[in-house]
Write a structure and sequence with these properties.
Blueprint lengths: L1 E6 L2 E4 L4 E9 L6 E7 L6 E7 L4 E3 L7 E6 L4 E6 L8 E9 L5 E4 L3 E6 L1
Parallel strand pairs: 2-11
Antiparallel strand pairs: 1-3, 3-8, 4-5, 4-9, 5-6, 7-8, 9-10, 9-11
Length: 118
């Protein structure tokens, strides 16, 4: 089993920056990819950014150029650096870890609130 602990959320003014952290523990060797999702009230959860074991990254168009996903293998931690934040970035951000090979597994963090004031 994999456990994910998120941190770094908070309140920030538009144009500011935050860095989210997701510390993974447990059977980390089984994970193929990790990512950040977000969900705003009344909206579906959406993928913000992802990173694979070979360091391939993917970003939602709405955050491309502003957000950067990275990892620190020594600390088993994935980060989401968020710059030039907008009010529309306000959401609960969730860390996800996935094993895409059989048997497939998905793990989620508890979520961390990001609020951007305009």
């Amino acid at each position: 089993q994999v456990q994910l602990v998120e941190s770094g959320g908070g309140l920030v003014q538009a144009g500011g920056s935050l860095r989210l952290s997701c510390a993974a523990s447990g059977s980390i060797f089984s994970i193929n990819a990790m990512g950040w999702y977000r969900q705003a009230p009344g909206k579906q959860r959406e993928l913000v950014a992802s990173i694979t074991r070979d360091s391939s990254t993917n970003y939602a168009d709405s955050v491309k150029g502003r957000f950067t996903i990275s990892r620190d293998n020594a600390k088993n931690t994935v980060y989401l650096q968020m710059n030039s934040l907008k009010a529309e970035d306000t959401a609960v951000y969730y860390c996800n870890a996935a094993r895409v090979a059989w048997p497939t597994r998905n793990y989620w963090g508890q979520g961390t609130q990001v609020t951007v004031s305009s």
